[in-house]
Every structure is written in structure tokens, then in C-alpha cells.
Amino acid sequence: MSEEQLFRPNFHFTPKSGWMNDPNGMFYYKDYYHLYYQHYPDDNVWGPMHWGHATSSDLVTWKEQPIALYPDELGYIFSGSAVVDHDNTSGFGKNGIPPIIAMFTYHNPKKAEAKKTDVETQGIAYSLDEGLTWTKYDRNPVIKNPGARDFRDPKVSWDAEHKQWNMVLAAGQETYFYSSANLKDWELLSTFGEGIGNHDGVWECPDLFPLKVQDTDETKWVHLVSINPGGPNGGSATQYFIGDFDGKKFMVDENFKDEMQKKHDFWADFGKDNYAGVTWSNISTSDGAKLFIGWMSNWQYANEVPTETWRSAMTVPRELRLVKSDGIYRLVFRPTDEIIGHRGKKHKEGGVTVNEETKLVDSETIDLSRAELIFDISDIEDGGFNFKLTNSGGDELSFGYNGNDKNFYVDRSKSGKIDFSKNFANTIITAPRISKATSLSGRILLDKTSIELFYDDGLNVMTEIFFPNAPFETLSIQSDDDKLKLKHVEIHELKFN
Ligand code: FRU
Known about the structure:
Elements lengths: L2 H5 L10 E12 L2 E9 L9 E7 L6 E7 L6 E9 L15 E8 L1 H5 L6 E8 L7 E2 L14 E9 L4 E8 L2 E7 L6 E6 L9 E11 L6 E10 L8 E9 L4 E3 L1 H9 L12 E5 L10 E6 L14 E2 L6 E8 L2 E8 L1 H4 L2 E11 L4 E5 L7 E8 L7 E6 L5 E7 L4 E8 L14 E4 L7 E8 L2 E6 L4 E6 L8 E5 L6 E10 L3
The protein binds beta-D-fructofuranose.
The site of beta-D-fructofuranose has 12 residues, from β1, β5, β9 and β13.
């Protein structure tokens, strides 16, 4: 089987060829979702960064577009964001066409090589043809380097409450908040991060937005901050903070802060392969949820994974909501309806008592390289369960829940190709269960080379990639607890044309 057949995902975005990392500049406009991304078209490893571009009308089928932004004399084009400037506050609009404004980081490779501090500055570009082609502003950079290392990844958004453009970027191990009236002149308002959150690595790719707390009239502000290294299972991951933003300063909610100080389990994803994720601008779902996507890899091994034509995929787009659980604000994630609405064949088992290894399904019934598994356990007590994906070549991916230590886990130590990096499968990936409910539910998305686990309605998420030598063919479940009962199991093949 060719590398393409074996590893190219069925329903996750990958570039046709070349290197990809962070999602950038996502916005929605005139029925299209735009996704830009850190891209090096000339090789399958990280290099001089461009913004690649893809568009979709359904968040499932992506059409790759011409490269949107090329490096220039100010530097490589690092991560950033884009907004629709409906009122033409920037003045770049013409003939009533609102401009799309992208804001990104210029990374100067010469200064980086010379170990200078002022390597990174912020620039903007505008598009008058719905994001297809871009003109860089002739007065770039719009924000000079203030003497800060790792000063990057501006995320712009319209702040309807304070009637200003907000922008947050990462600087070292902090985030800086700015505002602007015209997207060209930016004022530094405040900084955030000292003494709170994880500081085991560099802060990158932040986001800031208000979000309604589900089933209430309360609104809180969500601050996403990616960090590398420092992730809960090593390498890169995305932490979050919940609080208030008064138009100048972000203040973390007191209960949230206490809880985080006791135990930092505020991660958008506990798995190893969801990094630099941010949200789409100019759209939310009918109940106000934000749309999020992340880069499905980890800086520990992204440059070494065994694909050759291309490197890296994005996660599925996810809906992000805010809930209050045991008095603490938390984010919950679920795959968008666009993905899980693509159901084909269905296999259903009601009330399985799990003990010995029980085969649930094989590839004759459902193609396990594009499937959704849903299950429900009404009483988990101290029980645990283990799912296993296998192929006839002996590769195996196991994942499940350990009732003794109340951890979810994924073990990819036998999942196929693993020795391209010592950090890929050297440990079992775990996530402390957040919910205290006696019932436990799961929704699992399987693609050829990834698994995305959403437990307890998205309170615990784990995303992992893997590279089996042949497609996984069977799915089974087992438990050492002979009383463990799955109230309901349902497996769907996902059908994409
Ligand atoms: C995060 C990151 C960003 C930077 C980009 C460079 O993965 O390091 O901070 O802008 O990648 O490609």
C-alpha cells in the first residue's frame, strides 16, 4: 500500500504536499469557511513559513487554494488571524466591498540566527476578493518589537461590548492585550500570565473571546494559550483560562484560579496531538458556540512522522462551549454536526456486559478508518474498560478508562510505526477524569491515522495520531470488572463523497 493510501486521512484536512503546522486566519464569509495554515511548500519539514489556504462550504470537504502569503524582506509569515472589516474601519475597502484583514507575525530569520531579541514584529494584509489574494500593508510592521522574545501569533477579534478591535498575542511566557479602532494603530493595554497557568514552555497562539455559559445568561471571557513544551503528556498543548475582560485587562475568575492552583487540568485537549488551536471569526453556531480547529501533531515529533508527501493534518473542526461544572467554569468540545452528520452504515449493540475480550465490529461491517463510536455506561463505579483496535499484522491501539486511578488513557506503543521518535510512544497518554458523574459517555472519531476521544460530553478530550502498517480491522472491548455494563454502543461508518 502506498504511503498515500495508508496514511492520508479520510476526513481531516492535510495539504496536498509539503509541510503544515498551525491553523491561521480562519474566518467565515459568504458561505465559505476559510482555513489558512503555516505552510512550507518546498519540503516536508518546517522551513520558511507561508500561509497556505483552503476553503470549504461544509467543514468536511476542503479545496486547497493558491498560497495566500509569501515570506518577504521583513521575514517569514508566522501564525496569525483574520477578520472581516464590515464597517471598513481600516479604510482598505473599495466600492463598498468590506476588506478582510489578516494580522500575522513577521519572523526575521537573520535576526533569529544572530540571536537578537527583536526577531518578531506584527504585520497586516488585506483582501478584497474574499480571502483569495492579499495585499500587504505598505507600512508594515504595524507593531514593532518592544524588546520581547517570542513575540507572536496575533489573534484579532471585534469586541462588541467595548466597541473596539481586540488583539492578543504571545510574548515569552505571557500574553499581551491590544486594542485598535482601525486595525492599523494598536495600543498595548495590559499583559497577563505571571503566576498563573503552566510556564514550562513558551506561550504561543492565544485567543480571547466572550462566551455564554451554557444554560445561563452569564457571559465569561475565554483565553486560550498554547504552550510548548509543558503539555500534560509532554510537548505542546493548549491550556485555557476563564475570567472577565473589561476592555483593557483580562482577570481570571477567582474560583477558577484557586482550582487551577490546586490542580491544573484546564486543557483544551489532554492528548498529545492538538496544538495551536484557535477559533473562527465571523461565525458562531445558533446557540453561540465558537468553532475551533487545532493542528493535529506535537512539536516533539511533527517533523519526523512517517508521511513523506505531506506532513500533518488538522483536527476535526470542533464546537467549543462553556459550562459551569461543580462551580468551576470549563470548556467542552464536540465535533461539529457537519462531521457527525455524515453517517452511513450503523452497527448497534444494546447492553453489552463487558468482561472477556468482546469483538464489537470488524472491517467487513464498518470501515474503521472512518467511523464514529458512541457509548454510554450508566454506572462506572470503580470499573474500567479497554477498547482495542487491531489489524492482522499485529498492530494494536488501545484506549480506555482506568477506574482505579480515574484516568482515561491511550496506549500507542504497539500501534505500528513508532520508532521515528523516542517521544512518540514511550509513555501511556493519560487524562484525569474531570466529571464526577456515575455515568460515563464517549464519542470517538476514527480516521486512518488519528483518534479523537470526547468523554463526558467533551469535558475530557484526547486526540492522538498513529501510523499502523495496515489499516485497523477490528474493534473490541474488555474489562476486568465482570459487572461493567455498556448500556448502549453504536458504531457508525462516516460517509464522505
Ligand atoms: C506554534 C508556532 C507559532 C509560530 C509558528 C511558526 O506552533 O511556533 O508560535 O507562529 O508556529 O511556524
